[in-house]
Amino acid sequence: MAHTILYYDCFSGVSGDMNLGAMIDLGVRPEDLERELAKLRIDGYRLEIFRDERKGITGTRVIVHTDDHDHTHDHTHDHTHDHDAHHHHGAEDGEAHHHHRGLTEIKRIITDSDLSATVKHRAIAIFERLGLAEAKVHGVPVDEVHFHEVGALDAIVDIVGAAICLDLLAVERVECSEVRLGGGTVRAAHGLLPVPAPATAEILRDIPVRSGPVDKELTTPTGAAIVRTLAEAFDNGLSMTVQAVGYGIGGNDNEVANVLRVFLGQSTSAPVPGRNPDSGEYLQVDTNIDDMLPEDYDYLMERLFDVGAQDVWLTPIVMKKTRPAVTLSCLCSESVRDACIDVLLRESSSLGVRVSQLFRPALDRSSVTVECEYGAVRVKIAYRDGAVLKFKPEYEDCRALAQQHGVTIQTVRRAALNSYQSSPEYQQKMDEAIS
């Protein structure tokens, strides 16, 4: 079953506004993006969207204008907004608290909005990755990371906009090339910083990067956080049927075209061996808890899934003094390890965690919607080497149709299985397996 893939080609880096430009160039309608951003119920900004070109490549440019002292923020030309993030214990240099936005406030703005749950989860996960990196660089707790007012507004538009565009394009999987960083130094709030800026370097740990090809900052912390959080694979190989190519224009005019290129397409219908994002090296994070309210576990598990955990489960145990307790276990990739550990230490009563490495072979999976006599039901299909090994109708679909028609859930499940097994796709898979 084919699924929609978005591939980032970061041959000239990535920033938040270049990403928005690339998404619009791919086909996201500006009015749809602005309608969704309005659900945040924040003002003080407007988007300027226009056609532009670099080195003969034509694409879409997005500039975020803010109302702050008629400030026009163009953050591919002057990448300083991300580096303004810093801890803030009180007013500095006569600045009042309202000139800064903390990570907690930004997450609350997103959570309280009318955006879809998927968009909220993705946007918060990107912000948490950015916040954790800034906290580590500055040596402060993540709750004390604050963004200057203009920088926070830009980051909100860039990051929430990225999550919105992914949703509008119905993307099911994101992949990314190696990330070009640039070189030299960049001016930040506290002076000159080396490229990549410390927060960018922290965010892009464990993925392929390359310095150059120019001595300017090509990848900003916001751009890094977006691709690092959304992408499930980083390599320089495209594997899809390309349907559209978009170009997001940056603010610099470099020797190498300052554009972000993105490809939108369909995967081939047969799963690609070894490309299952659920297979491979994983980490298991465990902690034993004996003093937490039972109802809090549901929230804790939900938060772990929000930051990218692959699976979360509880195991009853008996601790010293025959005290009943629970082991909370979390399966995650290296890329979200720090975020999962942070959630466990902040949101639970635990004082420490254990981290172990494991290898998790998994079947390739896809989903197909079938029409049975009761309505449409999604069927999950599991493959190995292209052959169907097992398939199962989605529980929620079966439950909804059973309630709607006044029949048992088993009846709907049987009807869905019969429809799938009589479908041309199933017959084709069986013929392929036999041959």
Structural write-up:
By secondary structure, this protein is of the alpha+beta class. The chain has 3 domains: 4-266, no CATH class; 280-360, Transcriptional regulatory protein pf0864 domain like (Alpha-Beta Plaits, 2-Layer Sandwich); 364-434, mk0293 like domain (Ubiquitin-like (UB roll)), CATH 3.10.20.300. Helix content is 33%, strand content 31%. The chain is built from 12 helices and 22 strands. It has helices at residues 16-26, 30-37, 103-111, 117-138, 149-168, 198-203, 221-230, 296-306, 337-347, 395-405, 409-421, 424-434, and strands spanning 4-9, 45-54, 57-66, 72-73, 86-87, 100-102, 145-148, 173-176, 179-180, 185-188, 191-194, 209-210, 233-234, 241-249, 259-266, 280-289, 311-319, 323-332, 354-360, 364-372, 375-384, 387-393. The protein has a 5-stranded mixed sheet with strand order 13-8-1-15-14. Strand 10 and strand 11 (191-194) form a beta hairpin. Helix 4 (117-138) runs antiparallel to helix 5 (149-168). It is globular, with a radius of gyration of 23 Å. The relative contact order is 0.14. Residues 69-98 and 269-276 have low confidence and may be disordered.
